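Example 349.
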Amino acid sequence: MTVDEIAEGRRQAFYQGIQPLHLSPLWTVLHAVVTREPVVKEVPHLWAWRAVRPYLEEAARLIGTDEAERRVLVLENPGEVPHPAVTQTLYAGLQIILPGEVARTHRHTANALRFIVEGEGAYTTVDGEKTVMRRGDFVTTPIWSWHDHGNSSDQPMVWLDGLDVPLVNRLNGMFGDPFPTEVQPVTKAPDDSWWRWGQSLRPVGDPPPQARRASPIVNYRYTVARAALEALQRQGDLDPWDGIRLEYQNPVTGGPALPTMAAYLQLLPRGFRTASHRHTSGTVYCVVEGRGRTWAGDVEMRWEPNDVFVVPAWMPHRHEVLGDEEAVLFSFDDAPVQRAFGLYREDKE
Ligand code: 1HN
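Predicted structure in complex with 1-hydroxynaphthalene-2-carboxylic acid:
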């Protein structure tokens, strides 16, 4: 045996010796712990509406909301993530609710957002404010708010749910409660929060801004956000990486709509090709209008309306609009968490 082999043998014996004490050497793994840049195990993926929609319908035949509580098909990242999850920190799912159904009231410490993909006329009630939703509306359900859904229209409704469940679970922060009754009482007028906080006005006597880490606005209407994009498009003011991208703002703080998740509506003009960039936040996109393709790393994802796709953290990505229409994309990410702890970075090409 060489001197090196003898030394290695003594080390191996040492590692085995300390194992029963639940000790391990850092020096054998340090290079895998402190990497030059993030090692991201989630992968890009697209869920095509055309492929998924029939299974939502079938799910609706198989189970009612009374039994399921929330009838959702989870968008599971094919890479390595703590399931259910679409990225290391974010959860996404498609929820379907049929005419006459109710998804009973509960609350939890996970923050939730919804983006309406199909249908018109179902409602969500959030802490006493009932909002009737339409395609393209963006609805917030912040941490610990009571929420229930119902469909009193004559058509199914489908929306994209986005939650910070994987993050909350990693932090051992998940708590949840059922409400005493299936449907919570409606105590506020329709669009109450929109009139109270959504007009660059704020109720006198409101708690200080820092007390509202989540946006008080329940429903950010598509008609409003879309009109803003249209007005900006007319000015031709395009960001090379994002086209025209607006963030749904918490009007009280100027910060993100939810403490852990930011949401955006973005317009890419007809034929537009963005430059490539990457950032430490992972992003989930939902196509509202138009068609095109997105490259994330070397994966090409072709999209059309209602498709959902995920771009992992730190992966270079760019978009291209195809056909003769402009494109509108909704998206949400975990940038607020990244920023809160000084972790956010962006690389532009
Ligand atoms: C939830 O409460 C809803 O309220 C949807 O619609 C999806 C996924 C995980 C945990 C809670 C909802 C959810 C969820």
